[in-house]
UniProtKB/TrEMBL annotation:
<feature type="region of interest" description="Disordered">
    <location>
        <begin position="293"/>
        <end position="318"/>
    </location>
</feature>
<dbReference type="InterPro" id="IPR051136">
    <property type="entry name" value="Intracellular_Lectin-GPT"/>
</dbReference>
<dbReference type="GO" id="GO:0033116">
    <property type="term" value="C:endoplasmic reticulum-Golgi intermediate compartment membrane"/>
</dbReference>
<keyword id="KW-0732">Signal</keyword>
<dbReference type="GO" id="GO:0030134">
    <property type="term" value="C:COPII-coated ER to Golgi transport vesicle"/>
</dbReference>
<dbReference type="GO" id="GO:0005537">
    <property type="term" value="F:D-mannose binding"/>
</dbReference>
<keyword id="KW-0472">Membrane</keyword>
<dbReference type="GO" id="GO:0000139">
    <property type="term" value="C:Golgi membrane"/>
</dbReference>
<feature type="domain" description="L-type lectin-like">
    <location>
        <begin position="32"/>
        <end position="256"/>
    </location>
</feature>
<dbReference type="InterPro" id="IPR013320">
    <property type="entry name" value="ConA-like_dom_sf"/>
</dbReference>
<keyword id="KW-1015">Disulfide bond</keyword>
<feature type="region of interest" description="Disordered">
    <location>
        <begin position="259"/>
        <end position="279"/>
    </location>
</feature>
<dbReference type="GO" id="GO:0005789">
    <property type="term" value="C:endoplasmic reticulum membrane"/>
</dbReference>
<keyword id="KW-0430">Lectin</keyword>
<keyword id="KW-1133">Transmembrane helix</keyword>
<dbReference type="GO" id="GO:0006888">
    <property type="term" value="P:endoplasmic reticulum to Golgi vesicle-mediated transport"/>
</dbReference>
<feature type="transmembrane region" description="Helical">
    <location>
        <begin position="477"/>
        <end position="496"/>
    </location>
</feature>
Length: 508
């Protein structure tokens, strides 16, 4: 129970803090008031005689119900308009909808917004109005005089009344700030919002590619800007060798008041004299009367539109069927563009992934090859040599050992038999020989021939006799012994051969 009461109190506390925050945020936003005496807008923008209430016009300017054409697309046109009254407020915001259109790829010269201490000319040197102005000029400069390929350009220039505008360099050295924006031949009217509040000048621009106020972009923002305390608003435009239509559709002025300052009485104040006040009031009353009259006439002429409410009627004035169609086409195109951009981003992503995958794939085989070349293959080589060849070598060695054992056995056998034969021979020299069946006659003959040849050699070479005295010389006894040994070996060999043949027969 206690907890729920506590929770409710905490909730109320949060609500109170939230409301305080809202109040605080509202408190930091300036108070705004629409200033109709410094504004114009369709419908009934101009009266039937072409005059615009609260504004003075001049030069080649032509005003209609729906727009003001400051300068038309003909050579060397100049036109301007100035608010009749000086401002009675310190800070302001002006919203201008305009169109600069021409058949040429490039146009000239441009359009200017003014806030100056005094009204300017109607056929001056700077975009259709006076040079050496005192105050602010915002220029929409279409033509690239200095050929730096930086036009159309929007810039702000503050002048103290002494500086001559540097047309040759498009005022590049004189500008307060600026931005490169194309404002010619746009599907929607272009729009600028110029705010001067607490000595900060901000120029916002809506490029005419959409009709949404969300798309306002900051062209520039400049602090510590000091303009005349009171001034006239103005608009002007000029053409040169090249020409554009310079149309302004609306010009809406709002006065801004910092939070806490009281709003002055509408249209009055100590700055305007009583006569002027009366005159302006009369003018406003006349304007209202004429406006009502024109509205009534229009309703009579167009009974089908009588049911329309004034707001939608206002909207219709500056969006014809073709414009609407164009807008629809353009919004469709914008959507397509967005989709294409999204697709392009996706594609980039996919390509990036693919490249990563490819690089990974290509790195795997090369790395594997390195491993095989670096460590795998040598290991494999050593393994094959050791396993197969060493095995083969061992097998060969084993077989060689076996064979050599066999041979040794045979040799031992032969040796023992030879000993036996030698012993037998020593006991009964002839019997054994005969038992073998060897041809003794031929052997004795061979021995006799050998002895004879030795005798002959000894006789032929007396030197040999001397040598025979030496212990190394072979005596007949030794010779006979050697001969007997030879015979024994031959006998042994024949015995061995017989044995082998007998064993072979067993197998078969
Ligand atoms: Ca220029
Ligand atoms: Ca330029």
């Amino acid at each position: 129970m206690v907890n729920s009461i506590m929770a409710a109190e905490v909730r109320w506390l949060y609500v109170c803090i939230f409301l305080l925050k809202i109040l605080y945020s509202f408190g930091s936003v300036p108070h705004r008031r629409f200033e109709y005496k410094y504004s114009f807008k369709p419908p009934y923008l101009a009266q039937k005689d072409g005059s615009i209430p609260f504004w003075e016009t001049g030069g080649n300017l032509a005003a209609s119900d729906v727009s003001v054409r400051l300068a038309s697309s003909m050579r060397s046109q100049k036109g301007a308009m100035w608010s009749k009254m000086k401002t009675t407020f310190d800070w302001w915001e002006v919203d201008i909808i305009f169109r600069i259109t021409g058949r040429g790829r490039i146009g000239a010269d441009g359009l200017a917004f003014w806030y100056t201490e005094d009204k300017g000319d109607y056929n001056g040197e700077v975009f259709g109005s006076s040079d050496k102005w005192k105050g602010l000029g915002i220029f929409f400069d279409s033509f690239d005089n200095d050929n730096k390929h930086n036009n159309p350009y929007i810039m702000g220039v503050v002048n103290d009344g002494t500086m001559a505008f540097d047309h040759a360099n498009d005022g590049s050295s004189q500008q307060l700030a600026g931005c490169l924006r194309d404002f010619r031949n746009k599907p929607f009217p272009t729009r600028a919002r110029i705010e001067y509040y607490m000595n900060t000048l901000t120029v916002l621009f809506l490029g005419g590619t959409t009709n949404s106020e969300q798309d306002f972009e900051v062209c520039f923002r400049k602090e510590n800007v000091y303009l005349p305390k009171e001034g006239h608003f103005g608009l002007s435009a000029a053409t040169g060798g090249l020409a554009d239509d310079h149309d302004v559709i609306h010009f809406l002025t709002t006065s801004l008041y910092p939070p806490g300052t009281p709003l002055p009485q509408q249209g009055g104040g100590p700055r305007v004299s009583v006569e002027e006040q009366q005159k302006l009031s009369q003018e406003y009353a006349d304007y209202q009367r004429k406006l009502d009259q024109q509205k009534e006439e229009y309703r009579k002429e167009h009974p089908e539109s009588a049911t329309k409410d004034p707001e939608s009627e206002f909207e219709d004035w500056y969006e014809s069927d073709s414009q609407r169609e164009l807008r629809q086409i353009f919004s469709g195109q914008s959507q397509m563009f967005e989709q294409v951009r999204a697709l392009s981003q996706k594609l980039d992503e996919v390509i990036g992934r693919q490249e990563r995958t490819l690089s990974m794939l290509s790195s795997i085989p090369t790395g594997g090859a390195v491993v095989q070349q670096g460590s795998g293959q040598p290991v494999q080589m050593v393994d094959t040599i050791r396993r197969h060849e060493v095995d083969a070598v061992i097998n060969n060695q084993n077989s060689i050992i076996g064979l050599s054992k066999e041979i040794r056995n045979y040799i031992v056998d032969v040796h023992s038999r030879t000993d036996n034969i030698l012993q037998n021979q020593a006991r009964a020299p002839t019997a054994q020989v005969q038992s073998v069946g060897y041809d003794m006659v031929s052997l004795v003959n061979e021995l006799r021939d050998g002895l004879n040849s030795i005798k002959r050699e000894a006789a032929a070479n007396p030197q040999a006799q001397v040598d025979c005295a030496a212990p190394n010389c072979v005596s007949p006894v030794v010779l006979v012994a050697v001969a007997i040994f030879q015979v024994a070996v031959i006998l042994l060999y024949s015995i061995y051969k017989d044995n082998k043949e007998a064993q072979a027969k067993k197998f078969y």
